[in-house]
Batch of 2 targets.
Target 1
Amino acid sequence: MKLEDFIQHRPPFRVRFWADGEPLGEVLFKEEPFGQNLSQYFFCEVCDELWGTIEYPNRHWIPTYVACRQHQDGRTEFPGSLLGPVDDINDLPPAVIAREFQIHITQLAKEQQDDRGNE
Ligand SMILES: [Zn+2]
């Protein structure tokens, strides 16, 4: 087997997304994405809900403390968001992008309202 054939035919690196009780799709990478790539579960300390996961194949699970969509914990900028500050959203499943868009818009609108309330 030629190296090129091996690279062409080996199984893809599959990353699965889940949040708010439903699967949000998966991304197949030909190469393992750069970075730490541990499986993450998202956990709200306000209500104890495990509300989201990003699953990498055969990777350890680590907790990520992010408030769920229903709560504010005082340090989560976008409650319910699965994204880190540097994530490139271009590779994500459409359902994840749509959900993140909704979360960010809702949060920004809320902040604007709060600002007006303080004037
Ligand atoms: Zn919560």
Note: The helical segments are 3-9, 94-118.
Target 2
Amino acid sequence: MLNNFFKFRRLFIILLMLYSHDIIARSWRVSQIPNGSVNGCRTCHNSSYRSLNSFGLEVRSMVGRGSTATFWTSILASKDSDGDGASNGQELGDEDGDGVSTILRSDVTNPGDSNSKPKKIDTDPPLITINGDLELTLEAGANYTELGATATDNEDGDLSDSILVTGEVNTESPGVYKIFYGLKDSAGNEAVTITRTVFVVDTTSPVITLVGEAIVTVEVGSYYEDPGVVANDSVDGDLTSLIKVTGKVDVNKVGEYLIKYSVVDAAGNSSAELTRRIIVGDLIIDPIRIKIYNNNPFTFEFNTIKEKSYAIEFSTDLREWKQINVIKGTGAILRCEDERDQVISQIFFRVRMID
Ligand SMILES: [Ca+2]
Ligand SMILES: [Ca+2]
Ligand SMILES: [Ca+2]
Ligand SMILES: [Ca+2]
């Protein structure tokens, strides 16, 4: 009986020694692993602690069960035991396997658990691609349509909706405008800012309009005041005060005078040149009053001097006279015909010599 007791005691002591040896070996292994205390036994064991995980198996294949031999080297550090794409060294914060951790404990992951892996460090900025042209030219007053841009990121994917668009275009005012497109990814990497340049230009010429008639007849020796013109530009607005006027009228000398008007807008666009003819002449026949009751052309005759010019004019009120045409004298009686197709109850005609 006593013999049996001693046998069991010896066996118990042997088992205890083996167990203690295992515990010592395990704690040595954990302490050898950089940041081993973060995951503790789970560094090598599955959650049940009965079986080894892929990293634990790797360690056992190198040093055998219960060994206290050194196993944490650059060789084990460079392996990816759990196949999650991160090396054991990266997971434990000692990429080169020299036993010195280079990361925070909070960033340590489990080298034997493929579901535990380092967050990928994203250092790549997103890429912005502009829609439409980088430079465009718009006529002042036209609409500017913002076409936007698209953006993609290696980690965040499509970030088009997060693009920050700044700057504005005032299409009413010629100038150079810039629109900026900027963006950061979730890791804070800033994309290269893209700039769109919009040139708003005025290439539209101002328009000038005569006030009064384009052909004016003036009695020699009387007074003439030009009624002028008005000028307008799509961008600059009223340019009447800037109109350039050339030519003058000598009311004391029979003849035909031209007054020319033009204007240039702020962008340097010239208007078309407008001309008014002022005919200073001698009345050679007094106004003749005619009654017209139908469309039949009316004719009258007058004596002419060779090479002289005669303006034929009409009026319905004896105040405003309008020129029908100018004819050259022949030295003989000329017949004049009014072929205008209209019915007026009464009309006055007159002829003046204009040079
Ligand atoms: Ca791994
Ligand atoms: Ca892992
Ligand atoms: Ca990125
Ligand atoms: Ca203009």
Note: The first strand starts at residue 127 and ends at 130.
